[in-house]
């Protein structure tokens, strides 16, 4: 239970109002009567922050004094979502704020809606980082999240004639009340130049990096409050600034533009989040970003978090650096460089420390998603690091040759340096070789990681590999996002589930209680009405009452197979308009898509265009009598997810088996009482095992079957020829029905499916259609459906990110919660 913090505002309605008005007057410089909604939001955010402040300072002091091991979470992305609601929840201020604002004639919901979410991530990986730091704070575990303060986060998606158009995400424009910049604590980051050898005082050969340019990293701190426990951890995001703002001689010579060019150049580094989330483009700026935040973070931890006289030989006793995918892996040679070139360690000493300080999480199975940096680029930007990487590789190959004498092929396979198509550094191999532990993000994924992505490494170091199945924070995604369900749960089993999610099990018996089911269904209805209001205001979309709400929200990717979902919709539609299916036999259904496509990913953008055209045509066709609607609200983000997921009946998790590392949306849906239609992929496997086959609609090939079909040769066109229902659906698209008669508008999408279909959508089509029929059958039996939904909630407690964090702590980090 939260208590009034020392030195904070009084924990009462009165105290709150005083603080709020004070912030409005002194920080915003306006009177309440003259204040805008934005003024009010900013004042409210500062007020809540003030309540957390004493706890934050306290947490920092205690952690420092205790000299305990800290988790340094290194992630290029944090997809935080709005901060205000979470801060209110964590500090138990909801009721007080609600009443206080009412006294001021204001409405909390309106002010909350004023916040622009910090979208500093692309999707699952960034959101996972945000869930993990929430759990660590809640579990009282010391953690510093390190990342980049992008000036522009993930683009704002708009649709123009059904096509995606990207707008810059100006999340900082209306003020940023949650951040604390510390320009005084800036650190310098070097780039370029060359290296030189020299002999030190003891006559040992050493290396010197002589960089030729540098930038400053300015830290911005953000609070990461634990849930009602008084702990506030820190998220430290770095912003790039020029070391000298101004080239005075150039300026004096009259070339103003040239004089400030250096500044623009430096600040570009943290300007924008790259919106690609699976195909690394090998862009120089991205490598600059990666090294920038990693160099800042290591410097910061060593110089500012440790005692001045700390012996870095024991660095692993004070930090474990978790590498969130390969994006921060350049930290490995950076730590080696610091220890050797700056602290005078010899190679073996430095390597011994380094290999104890890193752990690596892989988030993919797609070969093209593994980062390989061209040595030409890496050597130009970070010459010393490339030297170190070469030396690490020599050591690796020596170890391999020793373990497998004569197996030169293996040595070549395992080399950190790839030779084709150009010479490059395989960051995943570097991470795997350097890390104490390597983990995948769901049981199936970790298995495939061992067997298919890193087989030679897992054979040589089997104990290094482990699995930690992802999780999501129940605070944001149940307690905050689904207040009605949360109330029902707490009324039924008490409030302990919020920090001990396995306790949801206690709901199981209530699945058979008609009274409980009625209340459960009422909460779902309330969520649907709330969503309808949001979509009406936000997108001008009308959600009909009483429909099965069928939701597929995630990044747009061929492997995730939005096109398979779309084919099902088109097929239902085609059957009705061709008279094969009486319209009254159609289950009233609204299909909601939410997805951003990487701006350069043509096929994904074409698919978005097609979904929008189908949505417009289907939703407007009177022959369907309003029984099938397709909605595609633009700009799916965390804020919308918090409204969409609690309202959903059906969760679409339909990736080709063996492609989705884990998925985390799948967990959020199950925890909010949606049933899943899904393949045996990623964490779906574990969801199905836990909720039970009867309460999960499984379809499609499993991973071995996919591999088998691939090996035998996959011919998508044969499925088209052999399946009249599939043929009719594709033919309807080809006929120009959804494109105003243009028969070629969607050729790229359709012929990609017919001729290539890398992710085998056509092969799984019939199975998917059959599973959808089972969905409709269950949905027709309201009691049976609700019963399944309750059991999904009751049995999904495993998917709390608190549990994930417990596993990392016990098996990978070996850190302790603080008392
Ligand atoms: C290198 C660059 C192009 C890049 C940038 C972002 C590559 C990948 C990403 C993001 C990947 C990502 O979000 N992966 C997802 O991670 C989730 C959390 O583990 C998984 O649940 C999900 O299956 C996986 O696709």
Describe this structure in words.
The chain has 819 residues and is of the alpha/beta class. The protein has 3 domains: 1-66 and 91-116, no CATH class; 71-82 and 119-369 and 434-469 and 806-813, Rossmann fold; 547-797, Rossmann fold. It contains 33 helices and 25 strands. The strands form 6 sheets. Strands 1, 4, 7, 8, 11, 12, 13, 14, 18 and 19 form a 10-stranded mixed β-sheet that branches. A 6-stranded parallel β-sheet has the order 22-21-20-23-24-25, sandwiched between helices. Strands 15-17-16 form a 3-stranded antiparallel β-sheet. Helix 14 packs antiparallel against helix 15 (408-414) and helix 21 packs across helix 32. It is globular, with a radius of gyration of 27 Å. Ligand 26Y binds next to helix 6. Pfam families: Phosphorylase.
Write the layout of secondary structure elements.
Elements: H1 13-26, H2 37-66, E1 70-74, E2 78-79, H3 84-90, H4 94-103, H5 108-112, E3 119-120, H6 124-138, E4 143-148, E5 156-160, E6 163-167, E7 179-181, E8 187-191, E9 194-199, E10 205-210, E11 213-225, E12 232-242, H7 248-252, H8 256-259, H9 261-267, H10 284-305, E13 319-324, H11 331-342, H12 347-357, E14 358-361, E15 372-374, H13 375-381, H14 383-403, H15 408-414, E16 417-418, E17 424-426, H16 427-434, E18 437-440, H17 443-453, H18 455-460, E19 465-467, H19 474-480, H20 483-493, H21 514-539, E20 548-553, H22 562-577, E21 589-594, H23 602-620, E22 628-631, H24 638-647, E23 650-653, H25 665-671, E24 675-678, H26 684-691, E25 696-698, H27 703-712, H28 716-722, H29 724-734, H30 747-755, H31 761-780, H32 782-794, H33 801-813
Ligand 26Y binds next to α6.
